[in-house]
Amino acid sequence: MRSRGAANRAALGLTGFILCITAASWARWGTVGSPPHLDLTPVRDRLSGHPTAALTVLGCLGLLLGMALLKAQFRGRVPRRLPLTSPRCSLDSRALRRAARTGCTAVPGVVRARCRLNGSVKRPELTLILHLDCRARPDDVLTAIGTSVLPSLAALLAPQPLNTRILLRVQRPRRVKAA
C-alpha cells in the first residue's frame, strides 16, 4: 500500500465487507447462521415480542452500515489541483486540458485535438495528440501552437515548467466510391 490512507481504506472496506456478510446471515437466518461461539439466546430472551424479527431488524441495520462503509471506500476521482502563483489559489487540471484542446483546435489545419496531463504537481507533463488535415503543413501547425497556445498555458503554471509532448497524426482523405 502506498500510504496510510490507503491502508485505512482497505481496513475499513474489509470491516464493511465482514459486517455485510454477518448482518446478511443474521437478517436471513437469525441465529442459525451465526457462529457457535456467538450465543445470542440471552439477547433474544430479553427482547420482548418477536425475537426473530428484532434480530432481523438488527441484521438489516448492520447490513446498511456495512454497505455505507464499503461505499465510502470507493470515492470518486478527484480532479487534480495545480497550484498557481497567487496564495491559496489553484487550477483544476480539467480546465487546463480544456483550454489546451480549445486552443489547439482553433489552429488552422487541426481537425481534432486530445489532451492528457501526466506527471506530478511540481513537474506536469502535457501530451497533445493532434489530428491534422491531410493538406495541413505540420511545421506551420507546430509553429502556431508553439507561439499561441503553449506560452499562455506555461504562463499559468509559471513557477513549474510545463513539459509538453506533441503527437501528430494525419487524417487521410476519405475515398469516394464511384457510382
Named CATH topology of the largest domain: Alpha-Beta Plaits
Structural class: alpha+beta
Integer tally of domains: 2
Major sheet, described briefly? 3 strands, mixed
Backbone shape: elongated
Instruction: Tell me the name of the CATH homologous superfamily of the largest domain.
Output: Cation efflux protein, cytoplasmic domain
User: Radius of gyration from the CA trace?
Assistant: 29 Å
Looking across the biggest beta sheet, what order are the strands in?
A: 3-4-5
In whole angstroms, the N-to-C terminal distance is 63 Å
Q: Helical region count?
A: 5
Low-confidence stretches: none
Helix amount, in percent? Answer: 40-55%
The total of beta strands comes to 5
Average pLDDT over all residues: 76
Query: Would you state the CATH class of the largest domain?
Result: Alpha Beta
CATH architecture of the largest domain: 2-Layer Sandwich
Strand residue percentage? 15-25%
Order of helices and strands: HHHEEHEEHE
